[in-house]
Every structure is written in structure tokens, then in C-alpha cells.
Design brief:
Blueprint: E1 9-13, H1 21-30, E2 34-38, H2 44-61, E3 66-70, E4 86-89, E5 94-98, E6 108-110, H3 116-119, E7 125-128, E8 133-140, E9 144-151, E10 153-156, E11 161-162, H4 175-186, E12 191-194, H5 200-213, E13 222-226, H6 229-233, H7 235-241, E14 244-248, H8 249-256, H9 261-274, E15 278-282, H10 297-308, E16 313-316, H11 318-321, H12 326-342, H13 344-347, H14 361-376, E17 382-385, H15 390-398, E18 404-408, H16 411-416, E19 423-427, H17 434-448, E20 456-461, E21 473-478
Parallel strand pairs: 1-2, 1-16, 2-3, 3-12, 5-6, 12-13, 13-14, 14-15, 15-16, 17-18, 17-20, 18-19
Antiparallel strand pairs: 4-10, 5-9, 7-8, 7-11, 8-9, 20-21
């Protein structure tokens, strides 16, 4: 039933432990709304198979599932290891990072950034795997950085290298990103996440690249991942040109200090909500569940507080990509989300204070009117008829106290809406008049919700229907009425 849907979207990273049809099906049943594909790992052949698998399973289960392509971006990374996907570094042992092309082991690993030895000096600290491991530079050659392991631990392949106090300018979108973007647009991914965004120009350049590569898919929404201090300095400009924001707390915590992450997270959520952009909280949400069946109490509080602060979505990374129990991690975060949503009115800090550009003021006014009607006249749902999903996005950001049901003729929009907070999408035939609109809404709501004849709903649509206009009316409708225009 529509009323049973969680409002907060759950994003799951797909990897070797979750890419089978059986596991994908179990994760979707447990509450996964969005599948994230991390293009720092895997080949395009692999990702093509996974995308097809996700679509097949979602179609069979009759569920909307959005796919996010997460571009690697310009970052320092280690290479691969010869013996499997992971090694363990021992504290006190020597470890070499080299620009030579080698198969790594517990003593040496490659990096594809040839300038790295030139940038570091003896005594510098190198942080690997989101700061979990710490190395100290002892010496260097033209190709090698010889380090001592201060803090050891498990090191998976292709993990990032962070150098505190050193801002490495590696430019914006990379050649690999462009190739992956071309692939993703041809695969019709629902969102593109851009890593290590530092300014608005980085986002604009990705949009230009979309136009050059595949004009028919250039409307694909862009999620800007905030991971560097430069992004915080240009926060408002980045939010303004993005469709959504991801608070990527792993690299962000390494780069600004973990003690600053909570307050920065709140600031980003508040600004994204003010600008009508969806916001995702990511990294280490249920990290202990990579191997454990239960999360820590701190992790449960972290997820709940993200919701209380106004996040639209929460994301699982290694928990589902390489964790021992991906389905259990999804089921657990869904339980935490459900409980937090029960107490939002009591503990939530969200206030709708959107301030948008002139071209969106009409849509914002309609969305606010729909919320006010639903609140004041005790409506049971808000029904949005939307071809692209843009009106559904704004209605979602006003957070009416009732379910939002989005009706669209486009399968692409149906899947994309899965990321929007509190919106349940349905694909319906194209309506030619208001009577057909109300009939579509009635058929779905009477069969898929607790709504019954005589209940009120608020409808947002664009008239005349045949012109496929953007929304321009808000209508209070009683289920069972016979409306003709």
C-alpha cells in the first residue's frame, strides 16, 4: 500500500557481493530504491551486465529503481593487488607507492599519478582508504615513495590517497570520466554523480560534455559530490547548478577533519533544501555491518539524525557492495528510517524555506499551494501529473503531510522519481483531458492505498493536457466525483 512506503530513499552501492539477481531482488524487497554503480571499480562490460540485471529484476518485481552512475573523478588512487582484491598492511612495516606499473602486494602498490613523488617530502603523511590507514613518507625516488606504516589495516584495491595540507589540483572531468559518461548515457542511467566537485564550473563542464556526447540524454540529472574544502568555499554556487547534492563524508572527513563533518553536513542539508535540491548522506552509515549482523548504536543514531536534519536519501556503500550480508544491511537501514520517520514531527528540524530562481517561482507556488490544501482541508494524498518529474521534485521538497503520488507516461521518469523523498510513482496512459486525469488517479489510489470514495486528494497538472504543458493548476478533488472540462 502507498501509505506503507518509506519517505526517505535508500541508495545501495552494487558490487561483487550484491550483483546477482537473487541478491538484487532481496535488496529491493528489503527497501532499496536506488542502485549506485561506482565507476572507480569494474569494467564497462561488467557495469552493462549489472544495469541490465537491475532493470530485469525491478521490472519483474514491478518496482521503480533508479540507477546512479558515480564517476571516479580526478583523484589519487592506488592500483590493483596481485593476490585478490585486498592486502593487509602491518604497522611499523615499510610500504612503497610507485608510479611503475606493478601488481601490488603487502609491500608495494602502484599509482597512476606520475607526479606524486614530486609532490611529497620526507615526513609527509599519506592517508589511504578514507583515512583508515596512515603512512609516513621516509624517502623518495623519481618513481617511488618509500613510507612507514603508522596505522595499518586492510587495504582494498583502487582506494584513494589523501595528502593532508596538500591540495592536489588534478583538474576537472578526466578522460576516463568522459568515456564512462558516454557509456552511462548510452545505458540511460537515471543520474550521474560527479566526484570531487570544487566549483560550479566543474558541474557546468559535465553538462556541456553531456550535450557534446549525447544531446538526447543531456537532461540526465547531475548529483554533485562534496568531498573537498574547495567545494565548501563554493557551496552555494555548486548547489545552484546541480540537480542534487551528495555529502560524501569519507574524503570530506579526511580533507577537513572528522570533527567538522557533523556541522558541515547540517549546513549542506539546509542549503540544498533551501534551493529545492535533493540531498543524499553517504559513507559509513552502517559500516560495522560490512561484517556484523547488527549496526552500532552510533550508526543507528547517525542515520536517524540525517533524516531529522532533512536529508532526502541515505546511502550504503561497502555495506552492500562487498559486505557479508547486503540484504540485512538494507533491511536494517529501512527499519531505522521507518522509526525515524515516525518521530519526524517530534524531532525533525526541517523547515520549508525554498528560495528559487524566477523561472521556478510558478512551480514553487503551485507546490506550496498543494501542501497548504492538503494540510488545511485534510486531503489524503497529493497527486502529481508530471512528464519529466520536475514538479514532483518541488512537491517533494515542500514535504506535505500526506503521500505524494506521481503519475507519468514515461518509464524513465518513473524510475528517476524513486530517488525523490516521499513520492510513489506510477506509469499511466497519456490523458487527454481532466476527466482522464482524475480517472487515472482514482484507479491507482483506490487499488493501491487506503483511500476510498469520498476522500479528498489534491491534484497538480498542466492544462490543456494535449499540449503536455508544465503544471499550471492545483485542484481539490473528491474521489468519486465526475469531473469534465
Amino acid at each position: 500500500m502507498i501509505e506503507e512506503h518509506l519517505k526517505t530513499a535508500i541508495i545501495c552501492t552494487i558490487g561483487p557481493n550484491s550483483d546477482s539477481e537473487e541478491t538484487l531482488s532481496a535488496m529491493m524487497a528489503a527497501g532499496m530504491n536506488v542502485a549506485r554503480l561506482n565507476f572507480s571499480h569494474g569494467t564497462t562490460d561488467y557495469h552493462a551486465k549489472v544495469i541490465k540485471r537491475i532493470r530485469t529484476v525491478a521490472d519483474a518485481m514491478e518496482l521503480p529503481v533508479a540507477i546512479v552512475q558515480d564517476l571516479q573523478g580526478p583523484r589519487l588512487r592506488i592500483g590493483h593487488f596481485a593476490d585478490g582484491a585486498m592486502v593487509r598492511l602491518q604497522s611499523g612495516r615499510q610500504f612503497v607507492i610507485t608510479t611503475e606499473d606493478v601488481q601490488g602486494d603487502s609491500e608495494k602498490v602502484s599509482t597512476d599519478y606520475s607526479d606524486l613523488p614530486r609532490l611529497v617530502d620526507s615526513g609527509d603523511l599519506l592517508l589511504l582508504n578514507d583515512g583508515a590507514l596512515e603512512l609516513q613518507v621516509e624517502s623518495k625516488t623519481k618513481t617511488d615513495i618509500i613510507t612507514r606504516v603508522n596505522v595499518g589495516g586492510s587495504l582494498p584495491a583502487r582506494k584513494g590517497i589523501n595528502i593532508p595540507k596538500l591540495a592536489v589540483d588534478m583538474g576537472g572531468i578526466t578522460k576516463k570520466d568522459l568515456n564512462d559518461l558516454d557509456f552511462g548515457l548510452r545505458q540511460e542511467v537515471d543520474y550521474v554523480a560527479v566526484s570531487f566537485v570544487q566549483n560550479a564550473e566543474d558541474v557546468i563542464n559535465v553538462r556541456k560534455a553531456m550535450l557534446d556526447i549525447n544531446p538526447d540524454r543531456a537532461h540526465t540529472p547531475i548529483i554533485s559530490k562534496l568531498e573537498r574544502p574547495g567545494a565548501l568555499e563554493n557551496l552555494e554556487a555548486i548547489v545552484n547548478v546541480s540537480d542534487g547534492i551528495m555529502v560524501a563524508r569519507g574524503d570530506l572527513g579526511v580533507n577537513i577533519g572528522v570533527e567538522k563533518v557533523p556541522s558541515v553536513q547540517k549546513k549542506i542539508i539546509e542549503l540544498a533544501n533551501r534551493r529545492g535540491k535533493f540531498v543524499v548522506i553517504a559513507t559509513q552509515m552502517l559500516e560495522s555491518m560490512i561484517h556484523s549482523r547488527r549496526p552500532t548504536r552510533a550508526e543507528a543514531s547517525d542515520v536517524a539524525n540525517a533524516i531529522f536534519d532533512g536529508a532526502d536519501a541515505v546511502m550504503l556503500s561497502a555495506e552492500t557492495a562487498v559486505g557479508d550480508n547486503p540484504k540485512d544491511a538494507v533491511a536494517m537501514i529501512a527499519e531505522i528510517v521507518r522509526e525515524a520517520e515516525r518521530h519526524e514531527e517530534e524531532w525533525g528540524h526541517f523547515e520549508e524555506k525554498m528560495s528559487l530562481n524566477q523561472d521556478k517561482l510558478k512551480a514553487l507556488a503551485l507546490s506550496r499551494a498543494a501542501r497548504e490544501l492538503a494540510e488545511t482541508l485534510d486531503a489524503s494524498a497529493v497527486a502529481v501529473f508530471s512528464r519529466s518529474g520536475s514538479t514532483a521534485t518541488l512537491v517533494s521538497k515542500t514535504r506535505p503531510p500526506v503521500p505524494i503520488v506521481a503519475f507519468t507516461t514515461e518509464t524513465e521518469t518513473y524510475n528517476r522519481i524513486a530517488l525523490l523523498r516521499g513520492v510513489v510513482p506510477f506509469v499511466v496512459p497519456r490523458a487527454m483531458n481532466l476527466e482522464e486525469i482524475t480517472r487515472s488517479a482514482e484507479q491507482v489510489l483506490l487499488s493501491q492505498s487506503n483511500i476510498k470514495e469520498g476522500d479528498k486528494i489534491v491534484i497538480i497538472a498542466g492544462l490543456p493536457i494535449e499540449d503536455m504543458r508544465s503544471a499550471n493548476i492545483v485542484l481539490l478533488y473528491t474521489i468519486g466525483e465526475n469531473v469534465k472540462i
